[in-house]
Amino acid sequence: MDSLTQASLGALVGEAVLGKRLGNRALPWGAFFGTLPDLDILVSPLLDMAGRITHHRGASHSLLMMVAASLALAPLLAKCWQEDNVSKVCAGWFIFWIWSTHVLIDCFTVYGTSVFWPFSNYRAAFNNLFIIDVFFTLPLLASILWLVFLRRPEVRSKRGRVCAVGLGLSCTYVCLSLLAKGAISADINADLVRRGLAYPRRMEAPAPFNILLWRAVIDRGDELWVGYRSLFESRSTPVRWTIYQRKTDLLRPYGDTREIRAIALFTDGWWLARPQGHSVWIGDLRFNEMRIWHPDQGMVDSRLLFSWTFLPDAKGERLHRARGEGRRVKEMVRRLILRLSGNLEAWEATPRLVGIDGHAPELLPVKD
Asked: What is d(CA 33, CA 13) in angstroms, rounded to the nearest whole number?
């Protein structure tokens, strides 16, 4: 999740654990430890691209690291807070609960989190929240502001209640997201059964900033199918699928290289490739594509947010992040709201894949 959400969550968890002893000091300390696991990005400039994409949400987000950090830092915090009668055990739990909730909320997104490092390369991803969701963050922020700025005695005496309300509302939102995911998954399954479509795996994740519109990706081996589904649609309404050819043969000769192994691990295999001169363009289809509409042409461009260029014969670094362009977020949010209200025409059009240097837009087939 974004840094503001992680700091807010850490602040309220810190308040829940030691608020009665530390008062408002629990909030900044909680925000600090809620942000600490993401400071792994400070090492990123020292790594090549293959290292960066696997390092973030890596060791610092593992069970081993959160236990080690809790044990190592607890004596220092206990000494700092000795006048507040905070023991080493309490300080250790303070760190552990904040660190573990940071990791847990990261697991709710599609990015993937290395919870079991170094014993396993598995990256946990439950795919039930978008990486930025104001409806999850707002209750946390509101509770923090209430605790910080409203200093009346009757408020100070109810710190636990204010904290519980903020955490409870955000936790309820997470539960609702899981229920929504279950409903969407059933709708997607019904659509695929009607089509008689065979596939080895599929995934569903929310569209940006909400849990009402969802995006499904179907792995069909040589193809990846992408479709959107709203909670307000009838199960009998067919999904409009956009089909991306994977072209996995382009990377087959380089499958043993460090860079392609890193891509395969990070994307969990949800990637596609295209030739790009003497290089190969690689895109990650787990994440929502940036959509750019051209109403005069009846087209909608699909630009993948995570994509790279692999130069197999280059000297030095061979994997580079593909160049992006300005994002038209306001237009996408406006059309997303229209799509939620049932206006499919505002969201769909003739799709084409863009963002590959030296290539004209690639028209994508659809299945209605």
From this structure: 10
Q: pLDDT for 126-175, tens place per residue?
A: 999 999 999 999 999 999 998 887 666 555 567 888 999 999 999 999 99
How confident is the model over 184-195, as pLDDT tens digits?
A: 999 999 999 999
* Residues 66, 68: Cα–Cα separation, whole Å: 6
Reply yes or no: is the peptide bond before residue 312 cis, omega within 30 of 0.
no
CA separation for the pair 29, 10 (Å, rounded): 8
Is the pLDDT score of 283 beyond 90?
A: yes
- Give the C-alpha separation, 368 to 365, whole Å: 10
Cα atoms in the Cβ-side hemisphere of radius 13 Å centred on 273 = 22
Q: Provide the whole-model pTM.
A: 0.93
pLDDT at 155: 57
Parallel/antiparallel/unpaired status of strands 366-367 and 319-321: unpaired
